[in-house]
Amino acid sequence: MLTAGIDLSAEDANTAVAWIRWTGTTAVVEELVVGADDDELLRAASTVDKLGIDCPLGWPEPFVEFIVAHHRGDLTPPTEPVGRDWRRSLAWRHTDLVTRAVTGSRPPLSVAADRIAHTAMRCAGLLARLAAAGQPVDRSGCGTVVEVYPAASLNQWDLPNQRYKGRRNTGALNELMDRLTAATPWLQFGEFESVCRHSDHAVDAVVAALTARAAAIGHATRPGPTDLATALTEGWIALPTAPLTGLVTADAEG
Which Pfam families does the entry mention (predicted)? Predict the structure, then answer.
C-alpha cells in the first residue's frame, strides 16, 4: 500500500507532501517534498491508495446558507442576539465539534472565519481538478481522499501536538521527532528525517500520511448514519482510533 499526506497551505512554499510505502510490518518514507505546487499534489492524489489532506474539504452548511441568503438580499433576521454563540453556530463544521469532543482540545481553525479559508479555497480548486480528471472526491472520507488534522492525530497517539511550529519552536519540533521516531521504529525516514527536523510542514505531511493509512485500514473514525449527510458536504476529519503500532500489525492490509 502507498499512502500520502499533504500539509496544505495557500502558498506552495509552506505546502508539503509525503509518500509512505507500507510493506507488511515496515514502512518507508519514499518521497517528501516541501514547497509543493498543485501539479505535485495532483500527482500524489493520482498515484496513491489513500491520501490524507490537512485542510477542510468543505464549509459549514449553516454558514453557506447564511452567505447565499445575504448575497441575495433575503437573509432571515436572526431570532436571537447576534452574539458569540450565534456566530459560532455559523463558524464551525459538525466534524470540528466532534473532533473537539473526542480529543478534549480546542476545535480546529474555523474555515468560515479564519485565515485557513485561503487554504480551503486552494483545496477546493484541487478537488475540482481531480473531479474533472475523473477522480471525484467523497468529502466524508470514502474513496482515495480523506481529511486529516495532524495535531489531533498526534493527540490521539499521545505525542506532542502543540507549539512545535515556526522557527522559534525548533526545539519542540525536534522533541516531537524524537518521540515520533521512538514510537515508530518500523518507519524508515532515511534522508528525510533531517528535513522533518527542520520543517514542521514536513512533519505534518508525514503524520497526514500515517493517518491516511489508519483511515485505509479501518483504524480511524468514520461518520455514522446521522453524520453522513453533513459529512458529504462539510467534510469529515478522520481521527486515529488505534495505537501507531496498529498500522503495521500482521493482520493489517499491506
Answer: DUF429 (PF04250)
